[in-house]
Design the sequence.
């Protein structure tokens, strides 16, 4: 497989989920071996798990005083569509727009801009051996695999929601149809706590699925298993911080961003 980039530049704008600021981002084509580059306030840097500074309800990165929050839906769209090289220039704001809580708007914009195949071979992240982590009932295993596939088991039964699961091979086709539309979610009982923690400043009833127990109160589900689908989207987004295409099977049970990033750092030690 060859590396890719976008054909034409495009711009997206909207409010970030947690910080609430209005962001304008212009996405530019990039040369082979560039990776995913962020540009903000005169600083330019390649995304990497080593730059992650926060994983509370999202994945944020920091470089020389510049912090970009909640990057995972944006990076999921690029990784899910097989985009290896792109530059995201933040003209304002410090967080990609949340839109409807899914990766659909990013995905549509990328497909409209077009995808170009470059001459250089794609970088692949190949495991030399399996990696496993466990943390208070949360588990993740990453196994050698020809391609990229992920499985997620979700269990919010303590909040009144039945356990659910979803798995998929990660290809452009499956990402567009089965994963990108899955929205982030939250629970009514958590809203006050999130606000007190300084989060969800840019949220409204159109930017996530809000659950009261197992019942969505502001929308109809796009998939009956939308929750694990979105958690799998988050895995793709966090694994999108790798400079290359994962060649691995990811099995995740009740994990979150912190576990994803911890696993990436373990992978990089052995890949």
Sequence:
């Amino acid at each position: 497989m060859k590396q890719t980039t976008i054909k034409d530049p495009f711009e997206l704008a909207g409010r970030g989920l947690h910080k609430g600021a209005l962001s304008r981002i212009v996405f530019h084509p990039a040369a082979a071996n560039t990776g995913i580059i962020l540009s903000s306030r005169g600083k330019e840097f390649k995304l990497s798990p080593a730059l992650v500074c926060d994983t509370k309800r999202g994945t944020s990165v920091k470089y020389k005083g510049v912090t970009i929050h909640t990057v995972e839906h944006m990076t999921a769209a690029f990784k899910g569509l097989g985009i290896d090289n792109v530059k995201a220039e933040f003209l304002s704001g410090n967080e990609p727009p949340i839109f409807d809580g899914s990766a659909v708007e990013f995905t549509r914009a990328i497909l409209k801009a077009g995808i170009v195949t470059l001459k250089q071979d794609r970088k692949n992240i190949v495991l030399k051996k399996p990696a496993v982590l466990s943390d208070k009932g949360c588990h993740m295993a990453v196994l050698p695999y020809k391609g990229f596939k992920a499985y997620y088991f979700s269990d919010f039964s303590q909040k009144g929601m039945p356990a659910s699961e979803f798995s998929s091979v990660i290809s452009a086709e499956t990402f567009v149809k089965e994963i990108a539309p899955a929205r982030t979610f939250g629970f009514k009982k958590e809203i006050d706590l999130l606000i007190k923690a300084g989060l969800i400043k840019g949220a409204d009833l159109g930017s996530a699925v809000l659950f009261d127990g197992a019942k969505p109160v502001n929308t109809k589900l796009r998939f009956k298993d939308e929750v694990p689908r979105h958690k799998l989207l988050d895995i793709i987004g966090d694994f999108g911080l790798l400079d290359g295409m994962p060649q691995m099977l990811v099995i995740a049970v009740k994990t979150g961003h912190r576990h994803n990033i911890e696993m990436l750092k373990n992978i990089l030690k052995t890949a």
In short: The chain has a mean pLDDT of 95.
